[in-house]
TrEMBL record, chain A:
PROSITE patterns with a match to the protein in the record: RESPONSE_REGULATORY
Record organism: Thalassovita mangrovi
Keyword Lyase attached: no
Signal peptide: none
Domain of life: Bacteria
Keyword set, alphabetical order: DNA-binding, Phosphoprotein, Transcription, Transcription regulation, Two-component regulatory system
Molecular function in Gene Ontology: DNA binding
SMART domains, sorted: REC
Taxonomic lineage from the root: Bacteria, Pseudomonadati, Pseudomonadota, Alphaproteobacteria, Rhodobacterales
Protein name, as recorded: Response regulator
Pfam family, one: Response_reg
Residue ranges of domain Response regulatory in the record: 4-120
Length: 122, 420
């Protein structure tokens, strides 16, 4: 079985497309689509990597990332942040909080795969 | 004001005692509803209290001074200034209020662009949908042996997303359209002129019959021209319109059309006027039988569009510079040379047009002064004989929304093709 990735994103068709690409690339994919309990889900599923959207219902991706970084268990977990806003200050904020990578929508499938392979060598 | 305590009066007028205190010491402006309620509470005519107007003037002068609009080193107290130069003081106060008003609008607009939750949500929606489409389309394109079930599913998703994208894009556009005009009232002078000309259908019957004498009346009747700048632009436009109408009277021009067609050079020769003048005249004709629906644009020597009469089937850029491939700009680089090309914009729903273009000096020749040129382009629906003349020049609206690939005129990447 390949490495385990958790996709936290609220747009169903993006989830479906990303899941498909990642599965075909050999990843074991889990998905989750709201911010409320995202941190609990990360703890429970213990993935090798998280793809995290910034704009989520219930809780923002930034808040979720902060909580993950405060917890020793998820402190070093690779997190790829996705956002629809590509402004420098968003990127800076994501990096300050501890995002491993930052990607702006719309991205290409190849970009996502490349970023994942860099973050978690297979 | 005897017999009534300050606190009681304030209560009756619905304001705080300390605010009333400021008013009594001429430190706060009084007017409108507050003036009426105070007068009512005191049982006097409002006019008895309007000495307060002067107090307001002085207070605002003080504010302007504090805001740094008047040199702080000027030691003259606002009271003396207002007393000696009431007219100037009034003007200063009006300017000060206008500055505050404009500052507020700028703040609102800036805030709106950066923090408007509605705008942010709408853009997020658009980008999310685009992401889904891009990713799904990527799968369909890059997975040659995709199982039928997946293929159907992804095609359905793309179809759904495309519909959603169209809806959110429309919502976004209508939101931006509404907001821009209603909330700020800050249309550029050129926009006000455009709206004024569009309302009139680019034709002014009063000037056709009454000439330049009717200009004031036309300007007064218009509700579109809100700013002094737009009225000045409109006046300039109408003066030239009146001159054109005198040189090419309406009835004579209409009578000449069957012979000349919409060829501005032929019309110019017939009336002994410049080609640009003939173009303007054709663009100002009222809709009638035998009068083609034409569009026209003019630009100054910097390439900035200074006049635009739209025509269906040929899009004009609302903001920013136009496509450098337009014959209009070719004319600008070859002054006085008449250019005629068959053109069509490379977008869906665009028609072919016969474009006549020429650049002419804007002022009379003068030794020792290089003439300044303006270029004009008239867009006429082509006749059957025009169709195959020299092939059709493909062109765009402006680079941002132009899908043309490998264009040597491209200034910036297109949002339609780039990144996909």
């Amino acid at each position: 079985m390949g490495k385990h990735v958790l996709v936290i994103e609220d747009e169903p068709n993006i989830i479906e497309a990303i899941s498909f690409i990642l599965s075909r690339d050999g990843w074991a994919v889990d998905t989750h689509s709201n911010g409320h309990d995202a941190v609990d889900v990360v703890r429970a599923k213990a993935p090798d990597l998280v793809i995290l959207d910034v704009m989520l219902p219930g809780k923002s991706g930034y808040d979720i990332l902060s909580e993950l970084r405060e917890d020793a268990r998820t402190h070093d977990l690779p997190v790829l942040m996705l956002t629809a806003r590509g402004q420098t200050k968003d990127r800076e904020l994501a990096e300050r909080i501890g995002a491993s990578r930052f990607m702006t929508k719309p991205f290409s499938n190849a970009e996502v795969l490349e970023a994942l392979r860099e973050l978690v060598p297979q | 004001m005897q017999g009534l305590r300050q606190a009681d009066l304030a209560k009756k007028a619905g304001i705080s005692a300390s605010y009333l205190n400021l008013i009594e010491h001429n430190r706060r402006r009084i007017g409108g509803k507050l003036l009426l309620s105070l007068a009512d509470a005191l049982g006097v005519e409002p006019s008895a209290l309007t000495e307060g107007a002067e107090a307001a003037l002085i207070a605002t002068l003080g504010e302007a001074r504090a805001a740094g609009e008047i040199a702080a080193t000027d030691s003259e107290p606002p009271e003396d200034f207002a007393g000696r130069f009431p007219g100037w003081a009034e003007l200063l106060v009006r300017r000060h209020r206008r500055v505050l008003e404009l500052e507020r609008i700028v703040e609102t607009l800036t805030d709106r662009l950066t923090h408007d939750p509605h705008l942010a949500a709408a853009l997020h929606e658009v980008l999310s949908t685009v992401t889904a489409i891009r990713s799904t389309a990527g799968i369909l394109a890059d997975t040659p042996e995709l199982e039928r079930e997946w293929r159907d599913r992804f095609q359905r998703n793309i179809n759904e997303d495309a519909k959603r994208l169209a809806e959110s894009a429309q919502t976004l556009v209508s939101y931006l359209d509404e907001g821009g005009e209603e909330e700020t009232g800050l249309a550029a002078p050129q926009d006000e002129l455009d709206a004024f000309l569009t309302d009139a259908g680019f034709h002014f019957e009063a000037l056709e019959t009454g000439g330049a004498g009717e200009i004031d009346g036309v300007l007064q009747e218009s509700e579109r021209l809100q700013s002094a700048a737009s009225r000045a632009l409109a006046r300039q436009y109408l003066q030239r319109y009146a001159e054109d109408a005198a040189a090419l009277p309406l009835a004579d021009t209409l009578a000449a059309l069957p012979g000349t067609g919409a060829d501005p050079a032929a019309l110019a020769r017939r009336f002994g006027v410049s080609v640009a003048q003939a173009m303007r005249r054709i663009a100002a004709l009222p809709p009638a039988r035998g009068v083609p629906a034409v569009g026209m644009v003019s630009c100054d020597a910097s390439g900035t569009l200074v006049f635009r009469k739209p025509v269906e089937g040929f899009a004009l850029p609302r903001f920013g510079a136009a496509c450098p491939k337009w014959p209009l700009f070719q004319a600008l680089s070859r002054p006085l040379l008449p250019i005629r090309r068959l053109v069509q914009q490379d977008m869906r729903g665009r028609d072919a047009f016969l474009a006549y273009a020429i650049a002419e000096p804007v002022s009379a020749p003068d030794f020792g002064h290089a003439p300044l040129f303006q270029a004009h382009m008239l867009l006429v629906p082509p006749g059957p004989s025009d169709q195959d003349r020299d092939g059709i020049d493909g062109l765009g609206v402006n680079c941002r929304i132009c899908p043309r690939e490998g264009c040597d005129g491209r200034r910036e990447p297109s949002i339609l093709t780039d990144g996909f």
